[in-house]
Design goal:
Two copies of one chain form a homodimer.
Chain A: E1 3-9, E2 23-28, E3 31-35, H1 41-47, E4 56-59, H2 65-68, H3 71-80, E5 87-91, H4 94-105, E6 114-118, E7 124-126, E8 130-137, E9 143-150, H5 159-164, H6 171-177, E10 182-183, E11 189-190, E12 204-207, H7 215-221, E13 226-230, H8 238-243, H9 249-259, E14 263-267, H10 277-284, E15 290-292, E16 298-304, E17 307-313
Parallel strand pairs in A: 3-4, 4-5, 5-6, 12-13, 13-14, 14-15
Antiparallel strand pairs in A: 1-2, 1-16, 2-3, 7-8, 8-9, 9-12, 10-11, 16-17
Helix pairs in contact in A: 7-9, 9-10
């Protein structure tokens, strides 16, 4: 299964002929993690061939329509397809009321277990191979940014070292791989570090949702491989951005530079920008490794030794 | 301004890569009348260049998600565009609760007057140049079909006849055009029929929403120029159609043949039909003047003498 990020929608507020409403999908092995679900996301699942039965967790940044109005249709279409795998939806306090009233007026009738979770500032959800941290950001009454963290894994097991040390293949190898020290029959103690490379650092991704530049975002982004930051406006509209609770491309670049991320992806682009040159230009002056997302942009992830490599693939 | 019908979405239940969720737009001079508003309709407005500030009445057939989930996004985008013209939305009893809960959880914040009307079986809404009749149809708990009727207009005023009869140009002509008899100075009584052609019959359009074949639809369709009938399935799935509250193409054709409509348009096509040949074939055996709608299909309307002519224009 792939490890990749797919930008399903990259507009702000309203769709344009080129940009759909927000939705960013992280495919993590068999799991799907969807950040926000604007109107039309169910159609993007079809367009991009995303399996409708795969395990899915949806993290909603905030309750503005452009970020959540695709949720009912997606959940309903899953029912029409007779989905059985549970769906988990995480979001602000109003999320449950929203889903409840949709169910009572439209009747979603889920054929699967639909679980709603209310997130809080600082809460961390722990899953098998990753965790997701929620931080309150500054936009409207209740908005969250998220950090996806793959759990660190033990380092590479060097079989040649194990053989050279005379450790018999089998359960002892397994214990060393799990980080335990072992004692051989001849009395020697073998430490994991004797046969393992350095721990393999997990992949880290931060997503801001909508926000003005804020400390919580810097914390979410600290040391992340990729920071997906909203950049609704350019610097000439900095005041408008602040008043409306948004970030400029330059401000996002500044956050990226302070947070030691490897790649900054700007998204949530105002409909006023027919081309993204102005956004790219002002961001690059502050932080060079930046791309402005477009619908269909895919970032393929591949572990190479201790680190992840990524490859940015524009929509074909 | 144009007189035309534009099919913005023609799928059933869920979208496909070729068919969006239901929405049928009647452009009647400057007015827009939208029947149903599935997810994604706001984007269709952009794609087809439908002015976002034009007077708009939306008639919702029923509260299933595929027919109403585009409503919040459309209404919200109007606000982002600072619309000032009122929007009227007509539909079943749950419509008001639906809009209310969307407002309380998402916050539509309309910049215009948003009026919600609860329709009833047999109710007729009277507007300046047309009226819309609502009839309860048989699908789910509360579903409606609609009939648009342009009001009949007085016949053509034959100026040559008026001049030959020695009627002085001016107010007397106007009174005759409005259907009043007049008395000339020489004592002669002139009746409207002496100078007017036969009354010009108004355009009539029936739309079923979702339903099994039923008497109410026949009444809505009686003598209509165009009947837009749902045809979710073909005859081989007639039992499924009945159980799920839908109509087959053959059944819709039968209704059309009994109702003396001029053109039957089938819509709300199940995703299972990759081509529509089977639907067309079975309908044509019963009623020859039928087309299966596709997204973007447009029917241009033009008055020719006493009748309307229509021209079916596939999407370019």
């Amino acid at each position: 299964m792939p490890y990749r990020i797919v930008f399903l929608g990259t507009s702000a507020g309203m769709p344009t002929l080129n940009r759909n409403l927000p939705g960013i999908l992280l495919e993590w092995d068999s799991d799907l993690i969807l950040f926000d679900c604007g109107e039309g996301i169910q159609l993007r699942f079809m367009e991009y061939g995303i399996g409708a039965g795969r395990p899915l967790r949806i993290f909603v940044s905030h309750m503005h329509g452009d970020h959540v109005l695709g949720l009912p249709g997606l959940l309903q279409t899953f029912s029409l397809l007779d989905r059985k795998t549970p769906v988990e939806v995480y979001g602000p306090s109003k999320l449950e009321e929203y889903i409840h009233c949709i169910r009572s007026t439209i009747g979603l009738n889920p054929t699967y277990d639909l679980k709603i979770f209310r997130v809080d500032d600082g809460r961390c959800y722990d899953f098998e191979s990753y965790r997701i941290l929620c931080r309150r950001v500054q936009h409207g009454s209740e908005s969250y940014g998220y950090r996806f963290e793959e759990k660190d894994r033990p380092g590479v097991f060097y079989t040649d070292k194990a053989i050279a040390l005379g450790i018999p293949r089998g359960p002892l190898w397994k214990r060393l791989q799990l980080g335990e020290s072992i004692k051989l029959d001849d009395g020697r103690i073998i430490e994991p570090k004797d046969v393992l490379g350095p721990p393999r650092r997990g992949f880290k991704l931060a997503y801001t949702g909508d926000t003005i530049p804020c400390r919580a975002v810097e914390e979410l982004a600290e040391g992340a491989d990729i920071l997906i930051h909203e950049a609704t406006f350019t610097e000439d509209l900095a005041s408008k951005a602040t008043v409306e609770g948004h970030t400029t491309a330059a401000q996002a670049a500044y956050i990226a530079s302070r947070s030691s991320v490897k790649l900054l992806v700007l998204t949530h682009i105002s409909a006023r920008y027919v081309t993204v040159d102005a956004l790219v230009d002002e961001a690059k002056r502050i932080y060079s490794n930046v791309v402005v997302a477009e619908d269909g942009l895919t970032i393929e992830l591949r572990r190479m030794g201790e680190e992840y490599e990524y490859r940015v693939v524009p929509r074909i």
